[in-house]
Amino acid sequence: MKNPDGLQDAGGLTGRSAGAIRIAPRAGIVIAMAAFLGLVAFFWPFVVAPGKLGAAYAPPLIFGVLLVLVLCVVISEIAEGGINSKALAMLGVLSAVNAALRPLGAGTAGIETVFFVLVLAGRVYGPGFGFTLGCTSLFASALITGGVGPWMPYQMFGCAFVGMLAGLLPRATGRREVVMLAVYGSLSGYLFGFLLNLSFWPFSLDPNSSIAYLPGLPFTEQWQRYLAFDVATSLGWDTGRAVTNFVCVMLAGPAVLTTFRRAARKARFRAPVRFAGREPGGDVPTARSDRSDR
Q1: Which parts of the chain span the membrane according to its record (predicted)?
Q2: 261: which strand partners?
Q3: Mean pLDDT of 269-285
Q4: Residue 77, Cβ density class (10 Å: 0-12 exposed, 13-18 middle, ≥19 buried)
Q5: Statement: residue 246 has pLDDT above 90
Q6: Which residue blocks in the chain are alpha helix, DSSP H?
Q7: Residues 6+ apart with CB under 8 A from 86
Q8: Which helix (H) or strand (E) element contains residue 273?
Q9: Is the pLDDT score of 13 beyond 50?
């Protein structure tokens, strides 16, 4: 049964467009620009030769532009009412939770605990929130663990894509939704590894290797080389991440989804607030939501 906020209780939020936090058009454009920049940052080896986009200067440039774009997302959301103080507080809390969870896995054998919260939050609160949460979570985690380096912007982008795509998954309810999210979480483990490998593949191997990056090769041959590189170097590690995501979502998913949706109902992120005038005999105008508190 739906509550006054248009959300379902244990069954959960099922629509792709029914994210608890609305994405305003301007913020959607900024997120699309950030996503495009991320794709360029990862896939440039297929269109640009090494040296033309210097390895020493590209990561800091990407990092700076990324922070500006994330800031633009937040400002745009605030300007159009998409993120209010409650949504920003939720973003801060979940970023801190993810930053605290990440060291628990420590990445040993690919076991990482940061993704299942990101997947579930992106599902409940929407793709824009998932994108921003992916960036802020990895940024906070890097500061806590001392993991600041040229790899950090790529990790931020990778997690941003994971959170954003979770918010775009199709409708599902109950157990079917949990299974869908678990499968997506598993696939996102491979997706994250696939993207991160692109960040260092052009610089990590002897050019004489059969899986090394060679400028000027046709796209199909370059792609085959990269697929072979990805399988040879990180398939086992990515499998550990995929299994961790699947197990965490299957075990904790129902409870976490219910908690997130209950928080969305209580906070009423999408409920407009307006002043209803003065109470009889009172001196202070009272503000109320257009939705009931039931």
Answers
A1: 27-49, 61-79, 99-121, 128-145, 151-169, 181-201, 242-260
A2: none
A3: 54
A4: buried
A5: yes
A6: 25-43, 58-79, 85-105, 115-125, 127-145, 152-166, 174-198, 201-204, 219-267
A7: 267, 269
A8: strand 273-278
A9: no
Averaged over 25-39, what is the pLDDT? 79
| pLDDT computed for residue 231 by the predictor | 92
Burial 170-203 (b: 16+ CB within 10 A, else e): eebeeeebbebbbbbbbebbbbbbbbbbbbebbe
What domains are defined for the chain? 25-269 (1.10.1760.20)
Q: CA-based angle 111:260:173, to the nearest 5?
A: 90
d(CA 238, CA 224): 19
Average pLDDT over residues 199-226: 85
The H or E element that residue 289 is part of is: strand 285-289
**How many residues are listed for the chain in this entry?**
294
Handedness of CA 102, 183, 133, 63 (dihedral sign): positive
pLDDT tops 60 at residue 218:
yes
Q: Is the pLDDT assigned to residue 84 strictly greater than 60?
A: yes
Q: What is the pLDDT of residues 98-138, one digit of tens each?
A: 888 877 765 566 678 888 899 999 999 988 889 888 888 88
More confident residue, 51 or 126: 126
State the CB neighbour count (10 A cutoff) for residue 88: 14
Is the distance from CB of 286 to CB of 223 less than 8 angstroms? no
Q: What is the pLDDT of residue 163?
A: 92
Phi/psi for 22 (5° steps) reads -70, 145
Helix (H, G, I), strand (E, B) or coil at 142: helix
Mean pLDDT, rounded, of the chain: 77
- Asked if 119 and 192 touch (Cβ cutoff 8 Å), the reply is no
Does residue 227 contact residue 201 with C-beta atoms inside 8 Å? no
Task: Report the C-alpha gap between 51 and 57 in whole angstroms.
Answer: 10
Query: Strand 273-278 relative to strand 285-289: parallel, antiparallel, unpaired?
Result: antiparallel
